[in-house]
Amino acid sequence: MERGGGYRGKAALGGGYYRGGRTAGGGNGRGRGRGRGGYVETTTHTPHDPWRRVGRFRETTTHHQDDQWMRVGGPHNPPTTQTVPSSSSPPPADDHTVSVPDFSLLKISEQEPPCSPTIKKLHPIERPDKGGNLSIRTARLCVNHFPVKFNPNSIIRHYDVDVKPVVPSKHGRPSKLSKSLLAMIRNKLFEDDPAQFPLPMTAYDGEKNIFSAVELPTGNFNVKLEEEDGRVQSFIFTIKLVNELRLGKLKDYLTGNLSTIPRDILQGMDVVMKENPTRHMISVGRSFHPVHPYEEDDLGFGLTASRGFQQGLKATSQGLALCLDYSVLAFRKRLSVLDFLSEHIRYFGQRNFRDWGKVESALKGLKVTVTHRRTKQKFIIGGLTKQITRQLSFLIEDPEEKAPPRQVRIIDYFREKYHTDIMWKDFPCLDLGRNGRKNYVPMEFCELVEGQIYQKDKLLKPAGLLLKEISLARPVDRQTGISQMVQSGDGPFGGGITRNFGLEVNTNMTPVIGRTLGPPEVKLRGPAGKVTKITVDREKCQWNLLNRAVVEGKRIERWAVLDFSSNSEPPDRLNSKYFIPKFIARCKSLGMHMGNPVLYEPASMEQLENVDGPCQLLASVCQKGRGQLQILLCVMDKKHSGYKYLKWISETRVGVVTQCCLSSHANSARDPYLANLSIKINAKLGGSNVELFDRLPYFEDEGHVMFVGADVNHPASRDTTSPSMAAVVATVNWPGANRYVARVRPQSHRTEKILNFGDMCMELIDSYARLNKVKPAKIVIFRDGVSEGQFDMVLNEELVPLKRAFRQRDYSPTITLIVAQKRHQTRLFPESRRDGGATGNVPPGTVVDTTIVHPFEFDFYLCSHYGSLGTSKPTHYHVLWDDHKFTSDQLQKLIYNMCFTFARCTKPVSLVPPVYYADLVAYRGRLYHEAVMEGLSQPSVSSASSSTTSSSLSSVASFDQRSYRVHAELENIMFFV
């Protein structure tokens, strides 16, 4: 059985002070150094060494004698010496070549230490001050953080669990036991001997780890589970002590006496906090949901919305806190299979119903229990039988082998064995077999297990709108719901389990003071073409484009329309005689000179069914257009999966910018829609829609600055082979800092570390240098998609190699590295109406950098957008490295102002634009991959396609970077907007 849970096998770096001797930064091995890290005197060995300026940082180095981690720096103890990185690292790949990486080697190297023992191990920097002071107003807020008190003298014992059946499986392979079965086995052992195994004093993660407030016996224990039909299963339950988690270590971290977070302790406490919900609620992924959903949340079609919660422990300035947030999912209801199908599939059960393919699609992979015999076992539906029930028979063997095997009809078998008659004899049976064995059960004896997710993108429109309405709860409703969940007996603090571990929780939300930053003034052009200063609306921070023009509008003289709706019936067919003149006029009013299209090409949606269609169409359009098109406007009558083929062919093979739109929206030709379509096209072609009137804060001097965004898009959870897509974007204009170029690369499956980060950044810097005749002297990097547990990877496996690549090019810009997180549960609620906006949300520009932030590292929450629907989620910014020595005020204002420069809208966005764009590019890389792989599975493209496309489709591989390389005509523009 595989190890699970991730609690063992990881050394807690910084888990103790170096024993004996004195560190170079002052203080002995067990003492606490004082003073805060700043710039320090260093001895360097190479000219122009970017490591010379270490900024405010904390670090550790390995010690050769006893292989312990030595605490050199720390939040209060800066080092005074520095070791130069090893010069033996391999040189970067040539910047002008495109090579396919050897991913087998990369996977090996990922297991190696990121730094040699002589290289500093970087840690996130400490907070430069006590928080910012800038504001136009302050507000009293409540935050869904619930303080947790613990006894630092307490010990939580961590036990490893291994469960195996006494009788091995017939096929000889070790069988993986389900979480529900493992929980039943654990409960049976503890119920049989409560004196030695007190259930209320323990918490189980459902796989390999038990945490206990008291000492438990260790060794092998035999557990017998008796089924309700009399059958008995025996298991060997092995338990052994692996660690004693001393909570005093967590206190040391919270008070700044320990530099590295004790994750093993937090993980153990997290399991304790989840034990009560696990016992009484439905656990789905990271969220918990009630067993019985509300009747008013019925979505129809055998589905229901379920209101649950997610939770997690956080180390904050006020100490340890539990963060709990509202969560809504669509579930299949707990029904008999026949009742579910009657609700879910139209006409099911009627006399002439024969659409068994739709039935199999709806049921395959779902979990069911059976009612014809008494058992708690859960089965997975493998499919339907090809024959109906009355025709089904199977071979039955005599267990004592006294009689030869005989063929038995399933109808007769159920009558003889279970004394029941099958009613629905003209329906197929469900195949509930596993490991190649058949197990046919009539549908009428099967019930769906509760808590099975239904993908929201498959919901019909009415059900989807209802789920969205429930999910987007108003702030006051969300706050009330969270408070009820925290105080519920089924919640994390019910049942007394947390108190048994010495944990006391305040069930009131944390009060904080939020500051609202003032919005910047933006730059547009007036009717006469003169640059105009625009003061944005203070409440929503929005502006409009009525009687205004973009800052720099592109001339569009060579463009074409590819109309996929030409074969559709009105109103889905494009009214080109109405739309095109209105669109041209709106572009001109925005300062974008636009002539008539050089070509209008009718097409049909069927031509998007495979790669061949877009290949032929784009080849034909480019030929008829008699020259390079600036933009190709593609009109569709509905969303279509062929969108990915169109984008992949146009952006990697043909080299033409495409803009897609729906015919229904185009026919309405409403002014806001035409304006949005126009500014997207202007940004794609290199124009500038809006700029800040003043320069970005902090960077008012003459040095060039580049802003970088990086993100990784991972394949779906059920996809076990597809590569992850790494994307890096960067600004190429200064001081406007609103035009970006992008690079996307495939890498190992579900690998969060960007394997080619240094090479991708150098490509972008070379692009910047070609356009500006100078390299940027300052770089600010925003990294998306990483959790706190991956900060070490970002610092030591992405930043360190990037600095090494810069050094080998004799290039030493100053760098700030910031992680932007949206996947967190923290929510801000105004304490009263006067503290919030019209919708009950915090106003744009709200920042919180006290109480709920990290005890000593540099982080803050910023809500930069106007929340019109639901409850606003702030972005959590965490600074990992900072050569620029930003203060809290400077960095918060810089990021907030940047949120006003996003090209696709006329309001500030919720996420700093470099990260927003990197997310768009990473998703575009995912579309490319899907197009490539689906193209390989289709018949070869026709001879009318270009030879380049044909050869690519015939030879492309999943990790071949050439399949994702953007065409040279597009690689330096914002094609991805």
Automatic annotation (TrEMBL):
PAZ domain location: 336-450
Comp. bias (Gly residues): 1-30
Chain intervals for the UniProt region annotation (Disordered): 1-99
GO BP terms: defense response to virus; regulation of translation; regulatory ncRNA-mediated gene silencing
InterPro entries: ArgoL1, Argonaute_N, PAZ_dom, PAZ_dom_sf, Piwi, Piwi_ago-like, RNaseH-like_sf, RNaseH_sf
Domain Piwi residues, every copy: 631-930
Keywords linked to the UniProt accession: Repressor, Ribonucleoprotein, RNA-binding, RNA-mediated gene silencing, Transcription, Transcription regulation, Translation regulation
GO molecular function: RNA binding
PROSITE patterns listed in its UniProt record: PAZ, PIWI
Domain of life: Eukaryota
Pfam families: ArgoL1 (PF08699), ArgoN (PF16486), PAZ (PF02170), Piwi (PF02171)
GO cellular component terms given for this protein: ribonucleoprotein complex
Listed Basic and acidic residues bias regions: 46-69
Gene3D superfamilies (alphabetical): 3.40.50.2300, paz domain (2.170.260.10), Ribonuclease H-like superfamily/Ribonuclease H (3.30.420.10)
PANTHER family: EUKARYOTIC TRANSLATION INITIATION FACTOR 2C
Family, per entry: Belongs to the argonaute family. Ago subfamily.
Name of the protein: Argonaute 2
Organism: Dimocarpus longan
